[in-house]
Amino acid sequence: MRPARALIDLSALRHNYRLAKSLSGCRALAVVKANAYGHGALECAAALDAEVDGFAVSAIEEALELRAAGHRQPIVLLEGWFEASELELICQHDLWPVIHHDGHLQDLEQANLSKPLNAWLKLDSGMHRTGFSPQIYPTIWRQLLASGKVANLTSITHFSRADEPDTGRTEQQLEAVRSATADLGEVARSLCNSAGVLAWPQAHGDWVRPGIMLYGSSPFGFPQPQAAQLQPVMQLESKIIAVHQVASGEPIGYGSRYLTTRPSRIGLVAMGYADGYPRHAADGTPVLVDGQRTSLVGRVSMDMLTVDLTDLPASGLGSHVRLWGKGLDAGEVASHAGTISYQLFCNLNRVPRCYQD
Ligand SMILES: *Cc1c(COP(=O)(O)O)cnc(C)c1O
User: Fold this and answer.
1) Which of 19, 88, 141, 207 could be joined to 190 by an S-S link, Cβ 3.0–4.6 Å?
2) Terminal alpha carbon distance of the chain
3) Could you give phi then psi for residue 80, rounded to 5 degrees?
4) Which residue, 293, 298, 303, is CA-closest to 246?
5) Ligand 1 and 31: CB distance under 6 A
6) Fold match, 10-219 / 234-356
7) 33 catalytic, yes or no?
8) So where are the chain's domains?
9) How many C-beta atoms surround the C-beta of residue 357 within 10 A?
10) Residue 169 burial (CB count, 10 A)
11) Total Cβ atoms within 10 A of residue 315
12) What is d(CA 53, CA 40) in angstroms, rounded to the nearest whole number?
């Protein structure tokens, strides 16, 4: 059997969720959209079920899978509904949609709901992707509460640069939240993604929304003390399936991207872009072989990639290979491929996921 697989450590997932809870001291929605960032939504939800305050997903399809699996916690639909016809199911299953644009308000006006919604109202505090501007936000808030269509409202906004140090943007967004909600009385608030949970204690509010941190990957491109406490959940692993001796000055793989600079031992790994390993990973991308760091050499193929074993004489056919996980941060691998760990995880494909509790 092909040795490529993703080991998913569910106790690390619980550790990371508890870290989000203890750092924020408030309720935390486990963001399990996009199949829990490639980690398997149902398995991750089951592992958190006994302690989680709620889940967040991007669409009703994902929420209904969680309900069908028996999860009774609140489920926030981060993008609300896409068609008004979803509203009846949203009521039936008590899903909490985010209302984020005028079309949603019109749908609600025309809807005949079987019961009022528990809804979240999106404030555009400066990211300019979704939500209502601070100027009109209080009016819409009051209109919704008066409409009888919502049972209660939570205020939600999203930071665009909470993962960066000292841009001033997050403070501006916090100020926009304060001014937009100042006259609304007691308002439950949700502001923070993982970066907010880890680095913006003054923004924690009533509900936080950790995503990437649950999976043990830091949202920051620099060392950060809270993020240092995260435990990687996914180990992407395979084995060396062949070894070749290659002379100096010889090309390796498609396009001859890499030329050996010395007589080299090249190891072939059963892992490729069809598995989700990034095709754009550059020569020099770190790879662990038997726990030791070495480098990717040559372009990544669909099913295989090549690593330099010249300095690892004890490793060879059958050696254990880790592409990311404990001991090799997915964010570091991602930076060698011009992307972020989020995308590496979401792109995971074909490899079986093996769960450890
Ligand atoms: C995906 C998402 C999150 C989680 O973001 P992370 O950076 O993965 O923590 C939080 N809030 C919203 C609105 C999202 O869409």
Assistant:
1) 207
2) 24
3) 65, -140
4) 298
5) yes
6) no
7) yes
8) 10-219, 234-356
9) 11
10) 16
11) 21
12) 19
Q: Which CATH class is domain 10-219?
A: alpha beta
Pocket test for ligand 1, best of 13, 57, 78, 214 (most atoms within 8 A of CB): 78
What does the alpha-carbon distance between residue 255 and residue 266 come to, in Å, rounded to a whole number? 17
Task: Give the CATH number of domain 234-356.
Answer: 2.40.37.10
Residue 262 has phi, psi (to 5 degrees) of -165, 165
The token pair that represents 144 in the structure block? 């919704």
| Ligand 1 contact via 341 beta carbon (within 6 Å) | no
d(CA 252, CA 224): 37
Alpha carbon of 293 to ligand 1 centroid (Å): 32
Question: 3-class SS at 306?
Answer: strand
Structure tokens at 102: 């005028």
Angle between helices 10-24 and 41-48 (to 10 degrees): 60
Place of tokens 């936080």: 208
Q: How many CB atoms lie within 10 A of CB 257?
A: 14
Q: What region does 338 belong to: left with phi over 0, alpha with psi -120 to 50, or beta?
A: left
Q: Are strands 320-324 and 286-289 parallel, antiparallel or unpaired?
A: antiparallel
Q: What is residue 33's three-state secondary structure?
A: helix
| Tokens (6 digits) for 56 | 């967040």
> Residue 249 corresponds to which tokens in the numbers above?
């000055």
List, as residue ranges, the binding site: 129, 302
Write out the two tokens for 77. 């639909």
- Give the residue from 76, 174, 82 showing the smallest Cα distance to 127: 174
Per-residue pLDDT of the chain (357 residues), as tens digits, is 999 999 999 999 999 999 999 999 999 999 999 999 999 999 999 999 999 999 999 999 999 999 999 999 999 999 999 999 999 999 999 999 999 999 999 999 999 999 999 999 999 999 999 999 999 999 999 999 999 999 999 999 999 999 999 899 999 999 999 999 999 999 999 999 999 999 999 999 999 999 999 999 999 999 999 999 999 999 999 999 999 999 999 999 999 999 999 999 999 999 999 999 999 999 999 999 999 999 999 999 999 999 999 999 999 999 999 999 999 999 999 999 999 999 999 999 999 999 999
